[in-house]
Amino acid sequence: MFLRSNSDQAKTYKDEGNDYFKEKDYRKAVVSYSEGLKKKCVDPDLNAVLYTNRAAAQYYLGNFRSALNDVLAARKLKPSHLKAIIRGAMCHLELNHFAEAVNWCDEGLQIDAKEKKLLEVRAKADKLKRMKERDLRKARLKEKKEQSQNETLLQAIKARNIRLVSEALGKDEDSASDGPTEIFLDGLSSENPCGARLSLDNQGRLSWPVLFLYPEYAQSDFISAFHEDSRFIDHLMAMFSEAPCWDSEQKYHPDNLEVYFEDEERAELYQVSPGSTLLQVLQHPRYSVKALTPAFLICVASSSFLKSYLQGKRVHR
């Protein structure tokens, strides 16, 4: 009885895999090359070809990491195997390993300086590498600029003795450690969910994103830039020059409204004079700014809703 050697069996699987590869049936090609490798023949060149061919099939299946692993195995057996180097460079390119792709191309071009695929991959990888480095530099510069702006904002807030509360931490930032302060600075650099953010003008004055809440109708208004020197009455007059659609009774008039803020820590309400500026209120010893967005309750004075809403609450007028 004639027994075929492991090398012969491995070659048969290699040829079978090549046929599947030509038919673009890459999954079956992978299976055939794998069966050939299982024969563990002693021919390093044949095994290198099996690894390289399987890498090619894996590449076309989109399994770039598996393909790269096969390429590395092939090069251990045959370091100068040009097809393995080409396939490895292509895998690195697909995996966005641009510097590695360039290095692999350079190794291959030392073997064949005119290899078109290597020249093509190298040009593309080098261009993408430079773009990635440029984008990284821009990102670092932007981060540095934002950090500087955040530090300036933080100093401006501290100089005004305004209490800040991190929604995530549930505690005053003034009494927080270095860790929470960093979290606060990160918060400054991100936009408010409505697209606004705390800002500092050329005169060193702050403008805040502010929420007006109308509990009677479960409605709200968002002011993207409430200048700290602006008065509440100025905003109320602009917002209620015409009755909002939800005010069916048309009872919300600038001269008929009361403004409050809530001290959540003590569950108490403080009435705000409409003639007050935002800065005056933010500097109140019991006011805390949560999530960098001051919030205020707006109700109709002497309304039945307000009487019911305030019942049982301690109110400072």
How many angstroms separate the termini?
Answer: 107 Å
- The CATH homologous superfamily of the largest domain corresponds to Tetratricopeptide repeat domain
Looking at the structure, what is the overall shape? elongated
The total number of structural domains is: 2
What class, by secondary structure content?
alpha/beta
Percent of residues in helices: 40-55%
The tally of beta strands, per DSSP, is 10
**Run of helices and strands:** HHHHHHHEEHEEEHEEHEEHE
Highest CATH level, the class of the largest domain: Mainly Alpha
Oligomer: single chain
Structural summary, described in words:
- A hairpin with a 4-residue loop joins strand 1 and strand 2 (about 170).
- Helix 1 runs antiparallel to helix 2 (about 25-40).
- Helix content is about 50%, strand content about 15%.
- The strands form two sheets. Strands 3, 4, 5, 6, 7, 9 and 10 form a seven-stranded mixed β-sheet that branches. A three-stranded mixed β-sheet has the order 2-1-8, covered by helices on one side.
- It is elongated and about 100 Å long.
- Mean pLDDT is about 90; it is low at about 175-185.
- It contains eleven helices and ten strands.
- It has two domains: about 5-130, Serine Threonine Protein Phosphatase 5, Tetratricopeptide repeat; about 195-315, Roll (Ubiquitin-like (UB roll)).
- The termini are far apart.
- It has helices at about 5-20, 25-40, 45-60, 65-75, 80-95, 100-110, 115-160, 180-190, 230-240, 280, 305-310; strands at about 165, 170, 200, 205-215, 220-225, 255-265, 270, 290, 295-300, 315.
- The chain is α/β, with parallel strands linked by helices and about 325 residues long.
